[in-house]
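WARN retry 2 of 3 for item q-0093 after timeout on previous attempt; input resubmitted unchanged.
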Amino acid sequence: MIDIVLCASGSDEVRIVHDLATDRDRTARVVRRCADLAETLAVVAAGIGDVVLVDLSVRGLGRDAITTLLRDAAVVGLRHEDAPEQTSLSLRHIVAADAPIDQILAVVTAAVAGETEDAEAWVQDAADTSRPEGSRLVVVWGPTGAPGRSTIALNLAAEAAAAGRETVLVDADTCGPALSQMLGVLDEAPGLVAAARAHDRATLDEETLDSLLPLVQPRLRLLSGIGVPARWPELRRTALDGVWSVLARRDALVVVDVGPVLEEDEELSYDTAAPQRNAAAISALEAADAVIAVAAADPVSITRLLREQSRLEELGVDELHVVVNRLGAPVPGDRVRELITSRLPAASLSLLPDDPGACRTAAWDGALLAETAPRSALRKGLRELAHSPALIGAEPGAGAGADERAPARSGAR
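OK item q-0093 returned
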């Protein structure tokens, strides 16, 4: 006997329940009729039911919810005749909502007996992992304390674009999103939230993504952040993984600005599946081709960076480029370089000078350093870093950073 958890509405639900109850063979039964998705998730998590028969138009249903359901049961979608093809959500088992009960039972049986999906395999199967040769995803991260992550991410992306590279800048900082304001974008829209939602509904194609990537500079597009930090629960881990996968299929450099916290302790605070505030940073770091770790030129920031080494290794960060920002008197660059290289295996180390005046002017004007201080030592250091292996992906070697040439006097704020 197959136990069915049913999440449908109206005449479809009544008909299915009635037909199963009067079925002579009695190969399946409805053990729970759920009013909404939240109840369905709770019932399946409690171990009730072998298969979930769910209306694909149920509010909130998406890849993230289906992934959760698939951990404990098979899932069969009920699709209405007038529903668009995209609402299949890439499920392997779909049946028309008005199909005869025998047809519904056949699909349910196939899902349970021998074709029950593994959640991770379903997500991988639903995603296209092909990537063009020119694709590269670089994450700009740094320990807590505002060492200048956003300013460096913004200006590195702008310098890469100015050098002729198609570039996408993503604000994935769920604690302090700032890139839209720093670029002077007045009509701010939550681009990353919209992209995550579209992927969750299996509608994030190239056309949809292009509509979420306004051109803010020649060859530079912006995927704006959540705007209001309270919207972080809308960025689910599985949806974000899908967004990075879709962005990676663009023939472009993708620069992602993320928050500083890499803990996963949110999982310990809930008995059921829950969103993680740090999921954006963790997901991006795991998907990254390279990570630029930014620390301020002070003992506290550098110590925080060194203490995160093991966590970065846990997240699979293989190519790490360190940027020490705001270097100035009385700290000599050689001392900082020796301190970091002796304790942290990095592909390259760059030292950026401190220039609060240039950064302050750029912030108030909503402009790039290339616009407000084109001849500053800080802008020169960032331009050299933008042409280094950290962004372009070549083997580390000569000219890999700005550490040898950038004067230690001015920095990204």
